[in-house]
Amino acid sequence: MASKDAENQRSRGPPGFLPGASDPDHGLHILPSNPGYQVWQRGPPPPGNLPPGLEYLSQLDLIIIHQQVELLGMILGTETTNKYEIKNSLGQRIYFAVEESICFNRTFCSTLRSCVLKITDNSGQEVITVNRPLRCNSCWCPCYLQELEIQAPPGSIVGYVAQKWDPFLPKFTIQNANKEDILKIVGPGATCGCFGDVDFEVKTINEKLTIGKISKYWSGFVNNVFTNADNFGIHVPADLDVTVKAAMIGACFLFDFMFFEHSLAGL
Prior knowledge:
By secondary structure, the protein is an alpha+beta fold. The protein has 2 domains: 2-39, no CATH class; 55-266, Porin. Helices cover 18% and strands 31% of the residues. The chain has 5 helices and 15 strands. The chain has a 12-stranded antiparallel barrel. A 3-stranded antiparallel beta sheet has the order 1-2-3, with no helix packed on it. A hairpin with a 5-residue loop joins β5 (83-87) and β6 (93-100).
């Protein structure tokens, strides 16, 4: 009985936390119609001039991204638009991302397709826009490699993710709005991740210090073979600039497209 009471308390929030109330210290809001379901809704912004909608990122040192399984794509063996849930370390959803692209691009350009990823908060307001143009993905073509544009809020560019040419390792830079390099991301030589996690290390520009990582979690043989749904974790310092965290979320989407997006049509 005690364990059941404890579980009920965890699902309802801290002591004194009533359905329909807000807890600014934890960023939680309990829906009156469903007291057992916790979602984060925007509360009073922390000190500083942060882009609206990114306030909660200032508190996080772990961001979990879960790609939703597309049953239609599994059945037909076709590429459908990607959808992602973005969660905190407790598994509570903080954002939802949806790909917007045309069927022609998904069919004929596959993982290289141009698209827009719109990230909304739990109230449905768009807070981040990720623009991906059609570009190459080959170490033999160093002049037109992958690039993402990050907007937060939509219409205001805060950064870029740019692929850098390297004959052996996947390398990328996170840039500010002026396209000045801020951080580097270095991936492993092999990204298949057949029996373990795949880590992309986030480093300083000189690559001497590692400050975080973007990990593609291995979910087991069955999931890897029969679905194209992936799970990622972004490990960063909690005090990292929120616009850089937003760019790392965009980088995570890019890695999914480039290295882990496999449809049943290709099996």
